[in-house]
Amino acid sequence: MPGIGTVYRWELFKLRYQKRTYLGLGASVIVPILFVVAIHLHHQHGRGDFAFSDYLDRSGLAVPLVILLFGAVWLFPLITALVAGDIFASEDHNGTLKTILTRSLERWQLFVGKALAASTYAVAAILLCGTVAVVAGSIQSGFNSLQSLSGTVVSAPKALELVYVSLIVYLIPIAAIVCIGLLLSAVTRNSAAAVVGTLMVSLLIQLLGILPGLGGLAPYLLSTQFNAWQGLLRTPIDWTPIVRAIWVCALYGAPSLGAAFLVFLRRDVAGG
Amino acid sequence: MTDGPAGRADGASATGPAAADPPPVQVRGLVKRYGELTAVAGVDLTVRTGDVYGYLGPNGAGKTTSLRMMLGLIRPTEGSVRLFGRDPMHGVRALEGVAGFVEAPTFYPYLSARRNLELLAAYDGGDAGDRIDGALQTVELSDRQRDRVGGFSHGMRQRLGIAAALLRAPRLLLLDEPATGLDPAGMRDMRLLIRRLAGQGMTVLLSSHLLNEVEDVCNRVAIVRAGRIVYEGEIAALKRGAGARYRLQTTDDDRALAVCGAQPGVSDVSVDHGRISFVADEAAVAELSQALIESGALITAMAPQTVTLEDLFFSFTEGDGVPAAAAEPRTAPEAAI
Questions:
Q1: Number of structural domains in chain B
Q2: ipTM of this predicted structure
Q3: Which residues on chain B are in Cβ contact (under 8 Å) with A102?
Q4: The domain containing residue B274 runs over which residues?
């Protein structure tokens, strides 16, 4: 009998034929390469006052971490939204919802399969970006040890391990963005509105964090959770931001996912 | 309202022949409201096993909305739909043995026809995948199966829609205006295809406003007007109930008019464009012929005028819904006798 796995496999298959997939994955490849090219062209010390900035010329393993830092502003939310915001809305756009809803799959199975496919794409994009950044950074600056945020030196293999664990921690707020994208996709039934809307939600949350007088909100903003991975780069590891990221992101993601689920389950398919 | 032996008018209760199995489609009191707008206003209909059932109505009459509710795509505000006794709002199991499409059939434009069918077969499960080649052959799209659907014409998409439905090996096909937008050859092919499928034992419900198409392929119809069924029954019964109209020309029309007016079984006698027009059944026409000869008004021409489904449809759906017997039917080629 068909089930969630069937939907998941076909959703991934369909992603292979859509331009937005390659836009997102292409950005995941090109951005780190451009970043490394920029480092190469502007070879200097003391690039700025942000984490790992001084290490960009000394270790390629600093490159993925700096990209994680700046990618949180719009790059990764946009890449994530490209598919999450489209995955239900494109069915409305193509008019195919009525086609698949009259087969032998329940609506909840379609929802779960699609949500898993959107999540898989987001995971692939982040890991791809991180891997390209590691490779390109290592070619440019070498596969060298890294200084942690606490000032201790971390060997290159250990730093590589921390980079990938950081990428995994980074997926926590990304998962919340996926959920918001799914909700807007199900509600707006319009791909462009859902993609832009997801990005706008992400940017507005960041804006809240810099508004005067709202500093107390910062630990509970989704944008702050994009920095939770920095806890891994301290000695000893600071788990507090990571644990907070888990429950704060759940507060953003779970209601969005639940609402998207109910909207998809109960909606009348009067158009697509 | 006309109420033929196998028909009913104005939403009166329909009762089919007694059967142990629930009918393929049974709709009772179906209502769909969107705020102030009532799209479907209490539809009752029954599609029996083996029917090729036409669901007729002008644009905006509620046909597509009714079909969406039958397929479980939208929730009825009131009333019930049962497909083989199952409620389509209670999960996709109710759609076992059921297939079809509403409005134009839709597919992923960036995938080939075959990939689309493979996806749908995977979503159907079972041995649906084994039927892909046969379905493509049935709709004569085998040679275009590798082409992207985005490049297909409307007619090809309609045929692919039928192929997608056939993957489910349906006992009931629900088709929403399957021939709309097709060129004459496409319409003919679609009619032939539906006839062939019906011949294989499939029950078919098709909505349409192409009355020739319905008259050609359907045995029963429901006529919907402003969201309500105004007639449901057999087309033949509907036409019988409307009575046959004749035009008459004699050697003495004044005398013939008097004879017609006095003849039992002859009704609605009038003079139209200089010719006598009346409604009668075949037995009454035979007796009238004898009476005219006896009166000395010899017949020079008498021609039946065919009552088409179109005449009946308009009589139900336009103006005050006066039934077909009073409608002026389309004139058939006149035959002198």
A1: 2
A2: 0.90
A3: 71-73, 92, 95, 98-101
A4: 244-306
